[in-house]
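--- STAGE predict ---
source: upstream dedup step, 1 unique chain passed
mode: sequence only
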Amino acid sequence: MKKILNGGLLVLFAGLAVLYFLLNPDETEFFPRCLFHSFTGYYCPGCGSQRAIHYFLHLRLGKVTATNLLVLPAFLIIAYHYLHPLLNKKLNWKLPNLLYLKSTPWVIFLVIILFWVLRNIPVFPFYFLAPGEP
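--- STAGE serialize ---
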């Protein structure tokens, strides 16, 4: 059952990657807009993520950081999650997985909250954290 679920998730993510590669959220109305930003005028931690994913798939890292700086660390964390056990097994390492430490969720939560607050401060240097307007 787990293999079927993992296979289904892989197909889903591959399909979404193709969709985000082919369609630019800046140029189409197909993608949903952020409800938090629409109602409050403030940016949530995810604002700009759809555009950042599109630019990441096109390897335009400058645009990724301009639209949502947290997307790059998120991809690195996901890559670490999958590479860590593979490297431990292949290289016969016994390194602990840092993502499963007790404090890791709190650190990630704190970073997201700080990013959320700081990206809504309209003064230098914090306005660089706000997503670039389409």
